[in-house]
Amino acid sequence: MENSEGVKIESTVVTEEPLISALDIALFVVIITVAYFWYFKRDKQSSSSEKKPYTIQPSSLSSIEQTSNSSFIKKLKSTGRSLVVFYGSQTGTAEEFAGRIAKEGARYKMKGMVADPEECDMADLVEMKEIQKSLAIFCIATYGEGDPTDNAMDFYEWLQNGDADLEGLNYAVFGLGNKTYEHYNEIAIYIDQRLEELGATRVHEIGLGDDDANIEDDFVSWKEKLWESVCSHYGIEETGEESNIRQYKLVDCSEVLPERIFSGEISRLKSYENQRFPFDVKNPYLSKIAVNRELHKSGDRSCMHIEFDIDGSKMRYDTGDHVAVYPKNSSELVDKIGELLDADLDAVFSLLNTDEESSKKHPFPCPCTYRTALTYYLDITSNPRTHIMKELIEYASDPKDQEKLKLMASSTPEGKKEFHEWILRDNRNIVHILEDLPSVKPDLDHLCELLPRLQCRYYSISSSPKVYPKSIHITAVLVNYTTPTNRVNKGVATNLLAQLIPTNDELPQPTIPIYIRRSQFRLPPKSQTPIIMIGPGTGLAPFRGFIQERDYARKEGREIGEMVLYFGCRKKDEDFIYENELQEYVANGTLTKLHLAFSRDQPEKKYVTHLLEQNADGLWNIIGEKSGHLYVCGDARSMAKDVHSIIVKVVMEKGQMTNSQALNYVKKMEQQKRYSADVWS
User: Fold this and answer.
1) What is the mean pLDDT of the chain?
2) How far is Cα 587 from Cα 571, in angstroms, rounded to an integer?
3) Which residues are marked as active site?
4) pLDDT (tens digit, 9 = 90+) per residue, 349-382?
5) What is the DSSP letter of 256?
6) If DSSP states are collapsed to H, E and C, what string results for 605-619?
7) Are residues 565 and 591 in contact, defined by beta-carbon separation less than 8 angstroms?
8) Residue 141, domain member (yes or no)
9) Domain encompassing residue 652
10) pTM for this predicted structure
């Protein structure tokens, strides 16, 4: 036989056995030892728990989720609530909208709660009818190419595959999308229709928010009509009471030990000091910056080639994936807030949810300093929404400032116009508002409660793991622009990245938290399949990875299909990025054709769309006659739409189809993953 270490032990056969064997004695000793340890350990724990003083313990998103109760129905019943607002959110906006609806429910005698569908047993929706005058509202974002957000994926699949009887469930849906994308609000529309199919009652028509226009205005307009429908459906009236009750209460944490204070970690305390695989949205990897070089040859703009070192991290990526980068706000802006509010930014605090039943105990990792919260956790550079204007009113000592805030917080045409012009058009952030309305002095802890979370930024990976398994490359344009108020706004992530320049080996290298987000933007499974890549500007990024991967296959002796690239920029001698690399791929045969458009190198502007129109035969040869794949990367607002229109026209003319047939052909290409887009607005 073998012992626990795998060492073989000889056994001997005996003819007589003693009354009590050695094995019996050993087992007896083990039992006595375990009993002794259990008794005294329990006593020690009991004693220590009685003497332990109350302290604020650091919390994280993960610990919150682990202790949350999945039955939202039990929470509703035990706390006398009738309104639950679910959110499917990727960037935090849907969650914010859900919170605003739940808070307003009190004005209509509907006590509400916000719920993450990922943390709930959504099959409990069948029990909503047991709660009198109950209502479920869904704030749902559509993400990527018509996909549910990560936290709504299970709920979406449950609706698709299940056939629950939802009769008696009253519901309403607000969708968050972007009209520049083809699958505009697709998930919200599906959920709205599917709930009705399963027997639920729609209390108010679906609202569709467009982030390319003014999603705040869309939401506020829908929300006002929602409450009118709610009052009509349930026969209730608005109480008229404004609900400005704080969601979180301030807790002084000045006595908390330094090692128990968050300093920028996303979820787990000291996670950057003690890194643990796997790395994801709540546990990013602190990557060293291995390379940071300028790609533009001249001009006043900047485009950076950056390489993140992932050697030893166990992280793996595929060509076409995205990398998420966690930025931090500039110390200049953070210090300005402290100065404007005369606040001690190094004071340690915590915000604790006043709703004891909520699974979200804190709005961000607590305890931390105000400086940490404003630097790592809160978005202080985006345009604040109208509910923040409303909350700031009470802090304005000047009647003029107060009236301006009241106007912008209102839903009147004049109020919407003022908000659009003063906040959106003039591109003011919270710092600008505090500067331009000097009498407004909110409590800093309340401001921290109001501001949205600072989100990670996503970049298309511009490398192939076949060639660069130990690093991730990105191609990023430095964002700086002057606003109508003559302020210079700076992109949070790109301006941080621009400062992270690797030094010599003797000094610590700059680092930044990252994780990999999987994508559907993939090369064909067979290397022989011909492809067309359309990527002006930094839209070239994922195609650099595609070309590297095909070049790797060619060098291995495998047959590769045609690779045709359409690239455009302003001027050949200014912003033609990766020029030498591309010319080398053309020379060695990996890149079959390179079509170039330099928009400002001649009197008449020339774009990639013009080149596509001129090469209709070549396009049809690959996508029609050879069943090749077509890829588009870049601006969704105009370029991607124009490309789509051109492709439909090419299919019509060269494939001899009607407009309807051509549209169906292109739609089928998309369904077969032969027409893929990685676009942004």
Assistant:
1) 90
2) 22
3) 460, 633, 678, 680
4) 999 999 887 878 999 999 999 999 999 999 999 9
5) S
6) CCCHHHHHHHCHHHH
7) yes
8) yes
9) 531-679
10) 0.86
